[in-house]
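Morning - magnesium ion inputs below, output right after.
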Amino acid sequence: MERFVRFDTADGVRWGILGEGHITEITGNPALGYEMTDTHHQPSQIKLLAPVQPSKIVCVGLNYREHVKESQSATKEPDEPVLFLKPPSALIGPGEKIVYPEMAQRVDYEAELGVIIGRECSQVAEVEAEDFIFGFTCVNDVTARDLQKKDVQWTRAKGFDTFCPAGPWLVDKIKYGDLLVESYLNGELKQSSRTSMMIFPVPFLISFISKVMTLYPGDLISTGTPAGIAPMQVGDRIEVRIEGIGSLANDIA
Ligand code: MG
């Protein structure tokens, strides 16, 4: 298992592998193949960026039963995955600020497991889907709930700049089928569920999405949020924690 980080240096943006107390720079993009270099960085000296550079972010709505019950946009469990896109321009990294839009009256957090695709993926069967996974990260599918209701289409509600925090790093090769997914608002536990509670599990989602659109290396799938969504206010700190991955914290500005 490796932890891949993307970060800013004086010489530009780089990828690296996080070891014990240091980061080893790598060449290229890990999802596309990479080589280790002899350059090392101190984690305290660098700024982490979102550990993904997707051509698209495919999100799944209503993928946990208890969240369907609390949701006002559905009255029953979906019989197939509900898909929508977030623009890559919405991505921010750990510690970056989520900007509360002037247009919105209610902005919610949504803690989600993010899946990063490792190779081009079209029309794959569910039993083969796992072969196309590169790794996992924490995602916060930030949502302007009032605009989601108003617009019917979710593009604006889900697509504001800074509405897709991801990180703190990308973890490859973990068992993802039963991980604890939590969110904490100002340190208070708000969401707590397990990836085993998904209505449509990860391989099914990859197969389903690949029958709609070709997925490319680095593409990000956000797999839906459990129950416990609530609004955030300016000055709040929201943290998404996923077992085996880490903690993604962002403040609201
Ligand atoms: Mg969501």
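Note: The longest strand covers residues 133-140.

O.
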